[in-house]
């Protein structure tokens, strides 16, 4: 196999189409809007654009509920618009990754419409159907086949009158899970994927792809204290046939030409990821881990049960993945996406004083690790959380369901709103801030989700030509990765693992010209810090490749200062 595939030195940019750019004033972003911004993305220097779903969809989960895999949702545009986007990207030397959502479909997908129509329909077995619990009448409380909770606070089972049975949905009730045990389902998915490959796309981001192999028997699970039902994603994740299915998909689709593939895998361990990304096993190129984005939630609770995250815990987790995949598989690197709060608000300091420096320093930390970095739209501007204070401001189904459920369980309203402000997915979904005109230049109409009022200060127009902006820092970092093989292939070593403020590590690569070492020094705190005299390499003769605070000499790092240094 190719020892150095192209995506190892690539940087991926995620577009959330709804919130990126609206070309027709309906308040929702669309594909022509994305195409109109390709020069912006080219200037940033990214190699790949990953589009969150634009397929036909009732939009119950903003497009992650697909009713036609080979057509475009009219609000986003047409297939011709998508072809134009592909051409525009390819003209500029960039590639397109499509989101592949095949753990489930929409309940309005013709496959499910057929499946639910009768017990002897040929597609009945394409989904996961179960009778009511013994001794119960279907539809009554407690009759669900198991006590599982979906990812969105409801039961994972929906009662269906027509045939008197329940279907499984690990997400909303409008997202029934496909039955991957059925070979016809798998062949139909591969056929659809090949249709997209033939259309000219360059890869897939695979939604919750480690949930496709369900356990042979679905049984009750322990219910955590204070909860009504048992969280279910954990037992379904990384099921016994997952590797087999991924290898089969590789053979049927992914091996056809060089592509980039990334599997979203909640609950995957380093060991799971190592198997999936080992090129000899011919499964996927990389996975999205969830470990580092779960560290600031209390164990045993939901993602809305907040807890403090000490820096050593975070950096040791990333180091664990670096070491675990080194020399075998490959990491993806991300701070945020359309499901996560904004990086600068979560891991940085989004106060007026520290926002710019902390956004830059978080970027330097992430991009200096080994792996393929993913930039989520607006992250390159240092966009912040939404700061919503009223439930009416939110739109996300996970947020609204959690809010209702938490209140009905007796949680204090103020605490629930504070959790939403910290963790709601809508934090990442407010419209992209292009300029300081009305609605941040996102739309000429009324945006589907409120624009963050800080757009007058934080916007692309103010940053693209400013050498000190967050945008310019991302641009420099991306260029640095393209120009320095040590940042792609160099060995990772964490320094000062227990230091509470400093994040420090080296990347080292032996080449014909000698050994090259790059050191990252990052103050991940809002107070200055002295460099310790022990535990760091000799800095004499080091050159600054990229810093956040001017020339960056001296023994003290300012709040959120970072330095990328080439050692002598
Ligand atoms: O998310 C997968 C997933 O595990 C989510 O439950 C995620 O953990 C949660 O949003 C974090 O709060 C993927 C998509 O990225 C997400 O947008 C979809 O809602 C979900 O799958 C269902 O398709």
Structure, explained:
It comes from Microlunatus kandeliicorticis. Its EC number is 3.2.1.10. With 568 residues, this protein is α/β, with parallel strands linked by helices. It folds into 4 domains: 6-104 and 183-216 and 232-394 and 425-473, Glycosidases (TIM Barrel), CATH 3.20.20.80; 110-168, Oligo-1,6-glucosidase, domain 2 (Alpha-Beta Complex); 395-423; 487-566, Golgi alpha-mannosidase II (Immunoglobulin-like, Sandwich). Helix content is 27%, strand content 16%. It has 17 helices and 22 strands. It has helices at residues 31-35, 38-44, 79-91, 110-115, 183-199, 233-236, 242-252, 270-277, 291-294, 311-325, 343-346, 355-368, 397-408, 413-423, 460-463, 470-483, 485-489; strands at 12-15, 48-51, 55-56, 68-72, 95-100, 129-130, 148-149, 157-160, 165-168, 203-206, 230-231, 260-264, 286-288, 332-333, 372-376, 491-495, 502-511, 514-523, 529-530, 543-547, 556-557, 562-566. Strands 13-12-10-5-2-1-15-14 form an 8-stranded parallel β-sheet. A 5-stranded antiparallel β-sheet has the order 16-17-18-22-20. The protein has a 3-stranded antiparallel β-sheet with strand order 6-9-8, with no helix packed on it. Strand 8 and strand 9 (165-168) form a beta hairpin. Helix 8 packs parallel to helix 10. The radius of gyration is 24 Å and the shape is globular. The two termini are 34 Å apart. The model has no long low-confidence stretch (mean pLDDT 97).
